[in-house]
Design goal:
Layout (H helix, E strand, L loop, with lengths): L7 H9 L5 H19 L2 E4 L1 H16 L10 E5 L26 H9 L2 E6 L10 H8 L5 E6 L3 H9 L2 E4 L19 E6 L2 H11 L30 E5 L9 H16 L3 E5 L7 H16 L17 H12 L2 H14 L4 H22 L5 E5 L10 H7 L1 H8 L4 E8 L5 E8 L4 H15 L6
Parallel strand pairs: 2-3, 2-4, 7-8, 7-9
Antiparallel strand pairs: 1-3, 4-6, 5-6, 5-10, 9-11, 10-11
Length: 454
């Protein structure tokens, strides 16, 4: 039996039944990584010895019947999340040899749960373009789940591209302590897995208040995010905003998502047609705010306190050389644009207006959630297929508004195009509404991919 294709939930049952040991399971994943990663490049670094040692150590907890949901289950973690003693490069030459002296808050929680770290998933530089290779690792079976990072939609897009489920929790649910900051008011850590149920299981493990992150609130009500799993969608009110089904979304994506909404309606959900006017400008506002915050966060990498040491006769020349050699073209572009919108002559015209628009987007969502439980949209449009800087801004259209509003959002596969590529459907919930969107995503998955639950 190929255990590497199982869900997190099934692996828990398999390990507890002693069909395979944690060490043997880890070995199977490592063997696949050894075979496939040289071409796939899903992992920036593999921690084989540490993984086998961890798996062997937690087996005693499994044997004693004291395993938690993730004990002994291997995982991949994005390379911009700090792991003590292991290189965390953020995909950048600037931090190519950086070894953090501490673990991120989420890693501390996963260690308590007895997880097994297979390695660091490769990221684009400082995760400017998302968590696609985390998705690749899970999609081909190199890991049963991964922890990704989502600023403007990275986790959700990775899930959509690879036919997986990805969850961006409510901003503050999961600690950002130990996450290499890009845009601090937007960054969030979340899971990428095969099912919504797995995402709920993982969220239960990584959701806790962390005093080292001022925005963290964790799980004050001690919610079980699996509580709505396998309970259906009867009575849920699902809003469908017309702005997400316009000309900038391809016809096959629109058709697939609308048909998926009808499936939910047939099973007892109520569909509500709505308008979210301010989301038309969400991608532009996101670009301004995220670039401004990135220019500030990345200024710490000067080659003196952090980062690649530059050369030069003066201090200024050393910093210039460090940042020129250490940063790639996309990061430089974000820094320059961020400095532009924060400059004295542009601050009011760009940055302040973007912040005001963000408040309007939040207010619109608050109004919608007075009468709806979930907002249903496509995860990605056809815009992302053209990989230029301008088109990348437009690509955030479907995902940026939920990030700006600090709302939880889950993406799951709802169809496949004629060329076999998956189509992602996003379900956005009210603040703290992870259990509800995971409930709806889980129901749809059981209808669309019943083989995952046999």
């Amino acid at each position: 039996m190929d255990f590497t294709q199982e869900t997190v939930k099934n692996l828990r049952a398999i390990l507890d039944s002693r069909k395979i040991s944690a060490e043997e399971l880890c070995s199977e994943y490592l063997e696949l990584i050894k075979t496939m990663n040289p071409d796939l490049k899903a992992f920036a670094g593999v921690t084989a010895e540490e993984a086998l040692s961890s798996a062997k150590a937690v087996q005693s907890r499994i044997n004693a019947g004291e395993a938690s949901a993730l004990t002994g289950i291997p995982a991949a973690v994005n390379d911009n999340i700090m792991t003590e003693g292991l290189i965390t490069s953020c995909g950048s030459k600037m931090l190519a040899d950086f070894i953090p002296p501490y673990d991120a808050g989420v890693i501390e929680l996963l260690k308590e749960a007895g997880y097994v770290l297979l390695g660091k998933a490769a990221v684009d530089e400082f995760s400017t373009s998302g968590s696609p290779r985390s998705g690749a690792a899970v999609s081909v079976g190199l890991a049963p789940y991964s922890l990704g990072t989502d600023t403007g939609g990275a986790i959700r897009r990775a899930a959509a591209f690879y036919g997986l489920t990805g969850l961006r929790p409510t901003y503050g649910r999961v600690s950002r302590f130990g996450l290499a900051a890009f845009a601090s008011s937007l960054d969030q850590i979340g899971p990428i897995a095969k099912t919504a149920e797995d995402c709920a299981i993982i969220l239960n493990a990584i959701c806790a208040r962390d005093s080292r992150d001022a925005s963290s609130f964790g799980n004050p009500k001690n919610e079980d995010f699996t509580s709505g799993i396998n309970t259906g969608v009867k009575g849920l009110k699902i809003a469908v905003p017309k702005e997400f089904f316009g000309d900038n979304v391809s016809e096959d994506v629109k058709t697939a998502v609308i048909e998926s909404a009808k499936i939910l309606e047939k099973q007892g959900a109520e569909l509500i047609d709505i308008s979210v006017e301010m989301t038309r400008y969400a991608a532009q506002a996101f670009c301004i705010i995220s670039s401004a915050e990135a220019s500030s966060n990345l200024s710490r990498y000067d080659g003196v306190n952090f980062g690649l040491r530059g050369e030069g006769a003066t201090y200024a020349e050393q910093i210039e050389d460090s940042r020129n050699k250490g940063f790639g073209s996309e990061v430089k572009r974000r820094i320059m644009f961020g400095n532009f919108v924060l400059s004295q002559g542009n601050y009011d015209d760009y940055f302040q207006k973007a912040r005001a628009l963000r408040q309007k987007i939040r207010a619109e969502y608050d109004e919608i959630f007075k009468s709806a439980d979930i907002i249903l949209t496509p995860t990605v449009s056809n815009a992302y297929e053209v990989n230029t800087p301008a088109r990348r801004v437009i690509a955030d259209f479907c995902t940026a508004s939920a990030s700006l509003a600090e709302l939880p959002c889950v993406s799951t596969t709802c169809a496949y195009k004629t060329n076999g590529l998956p189509v992602g459907m996003s379900l956005t919930g009210r603040k703290y509404g992870e259990a509800t969107i995971l409930q709806a995503a889980d129901f749809f998955e059981r209808t669309f991919n019943p083989e995952n639950f046999s």
